[in-house]
Write a structure and sequence with these properties.
single chain, 140 residues, mainly alpha, flat
Length: 140
């Protein structure tokens, strides 16, 4: 257990839990998005539940086409909002909430776009199925 009492996991378990590849997790470390909380005596990366939660935030942002910089910014915002030793207050708290809300709005808009694209794709697939059934009935 770490000082915070969190169990430490090696990268393979983290990959299994998050559905991310080892390569992707290592890449996120290289670009300073998620740094393992510790290293074993043998040099293996060790992750905590907090690290896994950060990776899950990134994983959820990826399909919505957020850039690495936007991911980093959002993680900085949520880290600052969660700070207990020097919690944000006043103007800083309001600014952080506004920035977080702007990410929410972008995410909502991108989800709506994806829903519309999915509906078009499903309509197209249904059209192909109908044409295949019609072709099978006519002996074509």
């Amino acid at each position: 257990m770490t000082d915070q009492g969190q169990r430490q996991m090696q990268i393979g378990e983290v990959a299994e839990r998050t559905g991310l590849s080892l390569r992707t997790i290592r890449h996120y470390e290289e670009v300073d998005l998620v740094i393992p909380s510790a290293r074993s005596k043998g040099g293996f990366r060790l992750y905590t539940e907090s690290d896994v939660e950060r990776l899950m935030v990134i994983r959820r942002m990826k399909p919505l086409d957020f850039s690495l910089e936007e991911m980093r910014d959002l993680l900085d915002i949520t880290d600052r909002l969660a700070a207990t030793d020097d919690p944000p207050a006043g103007e800083e708290l309001e600014r952080l909430r506004e920035r977080l809300d702007s990410y929410r709005k972008v995410a909502d808009a991108r989800c709506e776009t994806l829903r519309a694209r999915l509906e078009m794709a499903e309509d197209f697939a249904a059209t192909l199925r109908r044409r295949l059934r019609a072709g099978a009935r006519s002996g074509a």
